[in-house]
Amino acid sequence: MREVGGPAAVGGTGDEVAVGASLLRLLTGAWPVYVMGAASLALLGLAELVLPALLEQRGVGVGWSGPLLTGMAVGGGLGAFVHGLRSWPGRLRTRSVVLMAGTSACVALAALTPHPAGITAALVVGGTLQSCAMLTRNLSLREILPPALWPRVTQ
Question: Is 33:141 a contact under the CB 8 Å cutoff?
Fold first, then answer.
């Protein structure tokens, strides 16, 4: 197994990984964050794939899926902006779990709501919470992994 560390690892910038810490050990310590990110993206993909069939079942034109997903994306952008305006209480992992639970509840609400306005509201709020969950996921990774590994993880 390859060891990461020492001045040669990052050009001696002071961001070295502790000698003897293996890359595999560091990445396995971060597995819950990766699982949370995968769950978030799977939930987003599920909402996008099922939305046209859901709208057709509710008697709404399938063409409305584009504007509804646009609302979800706009909600995501606003959520990311608002999330960055201030610091939030609690641990990053706890916040991420709460935000993912909220996103899951919004997607379930969109699936169970018979009225198109309710579906729209659930998708916009779900997009807002999902973008915040992804931000907390990224911040959690930065907290767990040493700075010398940040470029390697994002590639």
Answer: yes
CA distances (Å), origin 110, targets 68, 88, 93: 11, 27, 26
- Regarding pTM above 0.90, the answer is no
Per-residue pLDDT of the chain (155 residues), as tens digits, is 444 444 444 444 444 445 445 777 777 777 888 888 888 889 888 888 999 999 999 888 999 999 999 999 999 999 999 999 998 888 888 898 899 999 999 999 999 998 989 999 999 999 999 999 999 988 888 888 777 766 655 55
Residue 142 to residue 145: CA distance in whole angstroms: 6
DSSP-derived letter for residue 5 is -
